[in-house]
Amino acid sequence: IAPEMARMVLPQCMMTEWIWSGSVFAFSRVCNLRSKSNAQAETRMVTHQLSRHMKDHFPICYKYLID
Q: Which residue has the higher pLDDT, 5 or 37?
């Protein structure tokens, strides 16, 4: 069963975990687009955490890719 199908049967309040993969450029683009004030609060919380991890692991790229 695919993970997205298995999550269908979980109650809405259950926590799930997954592993993301992608390029630094792609993650920086997500952060730039989804950390603005017109994004949902939950989305901004995720991008804040993503930005923190990017800054820790890729400080030089972060400096140039994040607006």
A: 37
